[in-house]
Design a protein that fits this description.
alpha/beta; Glycerol-3-phosphate (1)-acyltransferase; 6-stranded mixed beta sheet; 10 helices; globular
């Protein structure tokens, strides 16, 4: 254990291990991806895609390894039982920081199939990681405002087609489709600008979730709803690397998905859109109340607080 080291030294050590772990597994990932690109045939994909997911699983396990080595975080987690390794899951979570991704991967790795995130298209240009996400078939989406889409309705079809292509690939291999339905990380400024009706959350967006259900809904048995709370304040990624995060609280719930969500056309049926949005808002209302309860039980400083460095 390296948790005895000074925080800055821990942060540097964790950063070095994170980069080294990423480079090692990405080299293998890119080599197989080039082969898949050169031979774009279904039988080749059937062999290579499980290997790519296996590499990503070991990559995540490596990250969990340096997290255990450098951090003394107390994890309070409930609801992780009863999952099947070979299944399809729709997963959603509240989003506050890049740390959320490491939390989700750490907890769900080897419990459910590899989490595939919907990403902003701009992230494909992130060095190394953008190529890795592309190699693993993470769908890249354009994020248009509702005002823009009203003026350019044809742009809705771009994301629909992107989602359909991604889900067609997901149908070939057990996959966990991960969606941060708020569309962006929570900040106090965004909360005010949105006039969000929730205390701890931004307004959820039903689009990508509904399109995924329409394309692959018959395979999902439930919605896996993850609530992440940092009782001592939301950490920056550097604070996470330093080992400053004392406690992480996670609650996992599973909700039945109304059957008609997978059969309807979200893009053209206004009644279905309203139903999906109302269902999602109901989940978000309960999540907001749960966050209140978890923060109160932990004696937290409250929403929007930043983790104080040690």
């Amino acid at each position: 254990m390296l948790s005895f080291l000074p925080p800055t030294v821990r942060g540097v050590a964790a950063s070095v291990m994170l980069v080294a772990n990423t480079l090692v597994w990405c080299l293998l990932l890119f080599a197989l991806s080039l082969l898949k690109l050169a031979l774009p045939f279904a039988p080749v994909r059937a062999v290579i895609d499980p290997l790519l997911n296996g590499i990503a699983t070991r990559w995540i396990a490596g990250n969990s390894g340096w997290m255990r080595l450098t951090q003394r975080t107390a994890w309070d987690v409930e609801g992780l039982g009863g999952f099947a390794w070979r299944g399809w899951y729709m997963v959603c979570a509240n989003h506050q920081t890049w740390v959320d991704i490491f939390v989700l991967q750490h907890l769900f790795n080897r419990r459910i199939p590899l989490l595939k995130f919907f990403l902003k298209r701009e992230l494909i240009w992130v060095p190394i990681m953008g190529l890795a996400w592309w190699a693993l078939d993470f769908p890249f989406m354009r994020r248009h405002s509702e005002q823009y889409l009203r003026k350019h309705p044809d742009k809705r079809m771009e994301d629909l087609e992107t989602t359909r292509r991604a889900c067609a690939k997901f149908a070939l291999l057990p996959t966990s489709v991960m969606n941060f339905v708020e569309g962006t990380r929570f900040t106090a400024a965004k909360h005010v600008a949105q006039r969000s009706p929730y205390r701890h959350l931004l307004k959820p967006k039903a689009g990508a979730l509904a399109l995924s259900l329409a394309a692959l809904g018959d395979r999902f048995d439930s919605m896996v709803d993850v609530t992440i709370v940092y009782p001592d304040g939301v950490p920056t990624f550097w604070q996470f690397l330093r080992g400053d995060v004392k406690r992480i609280v996670v609650r996992v719930d599973r909700h039945s998905i109304p059957p008609d969500f997978a059969r309807g056309d979200f893009m053209t049926d206004s009644k279905l859109r309203k139903r999906v949005q109302a269902w999602l808002h109901g989940l978000w209302q309960r999540k907001d109340e749960r966050i209140d309860e978890l923060l109160a039980a932990a004696g937290s400083p409250g929403p929007g607080a930043a983790a104080a460095p040690h």
